[in-house]
Amino acid sequence: MALIELDLYAPAEPTPGRAPRGRHRYGGLALVVVLLLALAGSGPAKSVLWRRTGLAQIGAPNGSYQLVGGRLYTFDSVGTRLVTTAWSMDPLRRLWSRTTRIPDAQSDGVLPGFGWFAAPARSDQVLLQSQLSSTVVDARTGTVRWTSPVPVTPAAGGRVGLVYEQQFRPGTEYDQDTGAAGPLYFADDGVFHTEPPLHTTLYALDLRTGRQLWQTVRAGPLVAADVRGDADQIVVVASDWLGVLAARTGAVLRERRLPAPAARELSSGDIVGDLVLLRHGSPGDGGTVTAYSVSSLAPVWQQQEPVDGSAAFCADMLCESEDFGVAVLDPATGNPRWRTDRGASLVGRGTSVLEVGNGENRPVRVRDAATGAVQVDLAGWSWYASSPEEAPLMLGRLDRDRTVFGVLTPGRRAVQPLGYSTTPVTNCASDERFVGCRVLGGVEVWA
């Protein structure tokens, strides 16, 4: 059974966490080292104090947290209620909280609504998102601006929200009891279908007010994403059409009719950098990948996918799986530019690439994105914190009953030690100024 998803707008899985008060220490992490962090490149060294700012308490074991826009957002459950709290991080102080009802638990005990995460909208707004709905609130006060009964994907620099509505042919719902093989198509409501949607409507909303700006209807499945480097444009990919639209008006700026799939129908569409990648056939079956330029919509190259039954994981990278590793592709030709060893995943971070142990969170090395040359060997480090690509890369490793921390700032060629914790931790997130780690009872935060 192959799972085929064309919903690029599906949110990534958030990093877990929630909020404090008082002076209680819940297995607190006492980082005690004052260190020197050299700025990237050849600039002078600056003294940076690694300071603990506090503990944001979380009561629910499955509570979650995020660092967004320089603030900490925590998600906790109290009975059948979800409590979302926003915190300033230096000092750590509660700004506001809002409580919403969690949908009734399913028969397996899972709370379907307890998968919320925060996404930046405009500078003064934050989008609280779940698999079921979306709420836009004032980032300063938590006041609800507007709500949506379906997920909304922010685009155009947080000014526009995208909503997808799929129409499937009746009777195509997948019967899980049969276990029948074949491609499946994931609908917005969580139902699997045995056929792709007949058509998809894309709605664009003003994220400040929720007002509809425009809509477009295309045959089959559809995906949309920002045009890199241009917040005023959105690229839209349908099964037989490719176009670039004005983000605020929906006006078609350029378009291209795509050839009808030959023997096999379109299985997925991805947008990586300035390329739109259209795949025909299932992964591992020797299908084809055709790349189109977002700038011109002209075809750039076409390649045959390897027949090996596996797929490579590359975030913000062009790559394909090989017998003995992963090949990173040249965006201009689609040919391998450089290769890794067996069992690796790659995460693009600007002009560098983080190589990670396959199926793990274990950092292996940092490579040059263009050549694959090893820039920093990360041997000995056990995990890395999730962070924006422009932020320092936070690293950690277990040392008996504590965690040792290090940081790799952009442009540096060596990991610099930070300090250690009094208890082991592995679940951390960071941005340019702050680090948060999940501990017993909440999230420990440092500046």
Brief digest:
The protein has 447 residues and is mainly beta.
Kindly list the characteristics that best describe this protein.
41 strands, disordered N terminus, four-stranded antiparallel β-sheet, 447 residues, globular, mainly beta, five-stranded mixed β-sheet, 50% strand
> Which percent bin holds the helix content?
under 10%
**How many distinct helices?**
0
User: Looking across the biggest beta sheet, what order are the strands in?
Assistant: 27-31-32-33-34
Question: How much strand content do the residues show?
Answer: over 45%
- Please compute the radius of gyration using only Cα atoms: 23 Å
Distance from N terminus to C terminus (CA atoms, Å) equals 47 Å
Topology:
Layout: E1 2-4, E2 35-38, E3 45-48, E4 52-57, E5 64-68, E6 71-78, E7 81-89, E8 92-101, E9 117-120, E10 125-129, E11 134-138, E12 144-148, E13 153-155, E14 160-167, E15 183-186, E16 192-193, E17 199-206, E18 212-219, E19 222-227, E20 230-238, E21 241-246, E22 252-257, E23 266-272, E24 275-280, E25 288-293, E26 299-304, E27 314-315, E28 319-322, E29 325-329, E30 336-339, E31 344-349, E32 352-357, E33 363-368, E34 374-377, E35 383-384, E36 393-399, E37 402-408, E38 416-420, E39 428-430, E40 435-439, E41 442-446
Parallel strand pairs: 1-15, 27-31
Antiparallel strand pairs: 2-3, 4-41, 5-6, 6-7, 7-8, 9-10, 10-11, 11-12, 13-14, 14-17, 15-16, 17-18, 19-20, 20-21, 21-22, 23-24, 24-25, 25-26, 28-29, 29-30, 31-32, 32-33, 33-34, 35-36, 36-37, 37-38, 39-40, 40-41
Descriptive overview:
- 0% of the residues lie in helices and 50% in strands.
- With 447 residues, it is mainly beta.
- Strand 23 (266-272) and strand 24 (275-280) form a beta hairpin.
